[in-house]
Each structure stands twice: as C-alpha cells, then as structure tokens.
Amino acid sequence: MAKAFFRLQKFLRRIQFLLFFLTAAYLMAGSLLLLQRTRLVLQQGSRGAPSNQALPAPEDTSRAGVPRSLQSPRLPVGTDALQEPAPGQQHSPRWLVSRNSELRQLRRRWFHRLSSDQEPLQTAGFKAVKHTAEHKGTYMGCFNHDSRERTLKGAVFYDLRKMTVGHCQEACAERAYSYAGLAFGAECYCGNTLPAAAAAAEECSSECKGERGSVCGGLNRLSVYSAQQPRAGARPLRRNVIYRGCFRAPENLTDTFPASLIQRNLTVEMCSEFCSKKEFPLAVIRGRECYCGFPTRRFSLREGTDGRRCGGSHNASSAAGGGYCLVYQTPVQDTRCTDRKFLTTKSKVFVALSSFPGAGNTWARHLIEHATGYYTGSYYFDGALYNKGFKGEKDHWRSRRTICVKTHESGKTEIEMFDSAILLIRNPYKSLMAEFNRKYAGHLGYATDRNWKSKEWPDFVNSYASWWASHVLEWLKYGKRLLVVHYEDLKQSLIPKLKEMVEFLNVTVTEDRLLCVENNRDGNFKRSGAKQKNFEPFTQEMKDLINRYILTVDEALKGRNFSGLPREYVPR
C-alpha cells in the first residue's frame, strides 16, 4: 500500500512540474506574439497607409458613381476596424471626426515612439558635435547658487546625459561670456561677473553627467570656470552680432541706455564687445558714440526707418549722427524674462495648449513661459525639450503646477479633461512639412531629398492631412472655452497676440517683459542646416486634398463665431 502511494505521489510531482513548464512556455509564446503584433502596428503607423490603402480623403462628387470594386480597398490587418465612408459623407466634418477617433491610438503610439527615438539626437542648445573630455580655462571655485537671484544670469543650458565642463565653456564663450558655471551635474550658466558668495570646495561634489571625474557643481552650488577661448583666428563676436536696423534715436540717449562709450574710429565689433561685457543685448551706435541697453517703451525697435538715414551702410564709421542710430543684437541674451518657476499653488483652471504636430506648439510654449514666468507642461515627455529648458516636461501633466499643458490629442475624453484651451492653428502645408522634418531630422533639422522623394511622403500627407482638419473640428466641438490663435498672426503681430494669450491664462505681465520676449522671440528653435530653395513637395492631387480640408475647417470656425482661416491658406 505504501509503495503504491509513493508511486502516486511521484507521478503527481512530475505532473506538477510538467504543468509549470507548459504554463511558462505558453506565457513566453504569448508575449512574443504580442510584441510581434505591436511591432507590426507601429510599422504600419510609421509608414502611413499604402497609397492604394490610404486614409480616405474628400473626393470629387464624380466618384460617387464608381463601383466599390474599383475603389480603394479597406486598410490592412491591424486597422481593419476603420470603416470605409459612404461616398456622400467624405466631405463632412462628422466623417473627419470619426476617422480621427479611430486612428488616435495608433498615432499616439507612433508619436511616443518618435519622441523617444529622437531624444538622443538632441542636445541642450549646443552643436551636435563630439566634445573632448578635456577642458580649458581656469577653475574659479565653488560658489553659492541661488536660482532666484543668479549672478551668472546669461544663457542657460541643460543636458541630462552629456554635460561636460568643456561643453559649457564652449557655449558660454560663443556667446561672449567670461565665465561658465555648472550645477546639479547637468546645468550650465553663463555670465561676466563671478558670484559674490563662495562655498567650500567639497560642497561642489556632483559629477558631470557626460564626463567622469569632472565636477559640475552640486545642490545649490555652482562650479565656475573661465570660459574656453575660441580657436585661434576665429572671431565669434563679429559672427554672432546681428544687425537689427536703422532707428530714430531717443531724445535722451544717456537716460535711455544704462552704459555708454565714446571712441574715436569706433567699430561695430568694439561696441558689441563693450556691451557684451556689460551683459546688454543691444549695441547702439551713433557716430563715435556706443550705447548699451535693452528694448524698452522708449526704444522698442518696432519702427525702423530707411537705412540710408544711417549712412546707407552697416558700418559704424559711416553711421550718421544726429537723430538716427544703428542697432545690433549682441551675443548676450536678454535676461529680463528668462526666470521661470512652477506655480506655487495648484491651478484651479486646467488649460491646454493644443495644436496639430508641426503647428509651432514648442515655440508658443517658449513665448508663454518667458512672458508669464511659469513653466508649461506636456501630455508627453520629450527629453530633448527638457534639455532645452522646458522643465515642465518632467512634471506630471495633471499636476496643475504648470500654466498650461501641451497636447496634440483630439479625442472627446482627452478634450473634456481640460477647462479651457488655446487652440493653435497653422497653415496645413507648413504644418505637414514641419512635422515631416521633425520625424526625420528632429526639432531643428531638415529631412533629406531622399526622404521627400520616398513613398513615405505621399503616405504621410494622405494620413496626416485629415488629422489636421479633424483636430480642429473636435476641439471646436468638445472644447469648453477656447482661444483660437493662428500661428501666422502670432508671428506677424507677436506682442498683441501674446497679450491675448497671457490674458486668457489670467496672468498680468509688464510691458518690459513682453519686449524682452520679443527680443528673444526665436529662442533655440530655428531649424539648422541647408534649407531647400524653391522646393515644392506637394503634387496637384495633394493640394486638391488639402484645400478641401482647409475649406471644411474655415467653415467650421465661422460657424462657431471665430474668425476664419487666414487668406494665405487658400488658394494654393
């Protein structure tokens, strides 16, 4: 009896082990299938629908009589739930909203994947080149670092993975600063005056994120180095000085500008270097007189005059005296509006900054942050933008510690989570090109000829053109309180439009702060690299498609008592 029981016990143990093994094998096989299916869907999303299976678009009414057998087939496996619209419904806003809802999850996963893929390509406003670990210049010591009253209050950069001492020194030297300070292992500050309060050397104990063995400050501590000198023969000051124009001089130049210099045979480089050392963003030249300062209400740089009144040349030696002066932008940053922080108390109103990708959302965030002094949040996390100073990227989007939250979402549920929204709209032709550039070259680069001529581009247009339209339509339908801002109007009339946005956010700002924003309007968001001249990527078929979407959105805006789309959108 005991022997039989022992055999039964042994058999059950084997069965238990076998069941455990089969369960593990089943789970592993299921995981592999799930990963393969997810990968397939992502690849389909990143390619866009094939041309013969493209996202249906508004078509001419003549297509209504075409038999279904001759029309485009349905989308492939993974998107087969997308229903083919009836021919008569393909012009309607209802179809656009419905189609956008069905594709939202696929696009969202694609957007997240692209953001994470591109993150390593971006740096904190520095050039995308390899820097040597060695640094030049003298170590000045460890100093106290007060983020509210910074001594090194020039340009500020972040790089959470690649910050090095040499990296920071180069960036500060290129902008004509004398000192480079590093904090928290990843933050770089520039200035021309050493901090007053020194700290013990051991308090600067944070290792640089991109350079082992080098010290990059600490908690509220700043490691300060003299800025690295540029290569022999280089003249960065002259290269970085920007001619702003000829302007009527204010009545009292001494009262308007805090610093001045009188120099025989004065040159632009002399004046720019003098003002850079004083940490002023403007160098103003009248004859042999050099003045330094900021744009103010007295001297706002809004009304330039004919350059011939200043001698018809950008050279200081030929600048006429009397009532006119030459104005140059120095490499130094206007710091009156660069201080930013999180809201001290949770916002009672949850505000979205909504736009289609490529519509200038990041630029709008730059303007809002510098105008209000508060960080903006994001529905996503983009490490590249965090490195550029958007600290709200790392904050949870529902924390309500930011003045508004960036989003490209357009579903009913996502929209109704917000109490109000700034809806930023840009010309779809420009938006599509900007997003295509971002997809292949990051936030600041350009896609190559090969990208534009590939099959990716027409597939991209077929899919994304309808998303541009449905994004606006859904926010008009479900948004509770909207301020519609057209990118082109914001670019052309920055101060008036920015005032509207700031008032909508219920923040009061000074005129000088707005002028500072205008002076720093571009930030670090100009695309670099060779831009193609006379380049027309849109075929006539694409134009017909996009123009019909434009008319649909224009009609919807007017139906909600908003101004229609700018005239420049159509015809094309």
TrEMBL record:
<dbReference type="InterPro" id="IPR002889">
    <property type="entry name" value="WSC_carb-bd"/>
</dbReference>
<dbReference type="InterPro" id="IPR051589">
    <property type="entry name" value="Sialate-O-sulfotransferase"/>
</dbReference>
<dbReference type="Pfam" id="PF01822">
    <property type="entry name" value="WSC"/>
</dbReference>
<dbReference type="Pfam" id="PF00685">
    <property type="entry name" value="Sulfotransfer_1"/>
</dbReference>
<comment type="similarity">
    <text>Belongs to the WSCD family.</text>
</comment>
<dbReference type="InterPro" id="IPR027417">
    <property type="entry name" value="P-loop_NTPase"/>
</dbReference>
<protein>
    <submittedName>
        <fullName>WSCD1 protein</fullName>
    </submittedName>
</protein>
<keyword id="KW-0677">Repeat</keyword>
<dbReference type="GO" id="GO:0008146">
    <property type="term" value="F:sulfotransferase activity"/>
</dbReference>
<feature type="region of interest" description="Disordered">
    <location>
        <begin position="47"/>
        <end position="97"/>
    </location>
</feature>
<feature type="domain" description="WSC">
    <location>
        <begin position="240"/>
        <end position="337"/>
    </location>
</feature>
<feature type="domain" description="WSC">
    <location>
        <begin position="136"/>
        <end position="228"/>
    </location>
</feature>
<dbReference type="InterPro" id="IPR000863">
    <property type="entry name" value="Sulfotransferase_dom"/>
</dbReference>
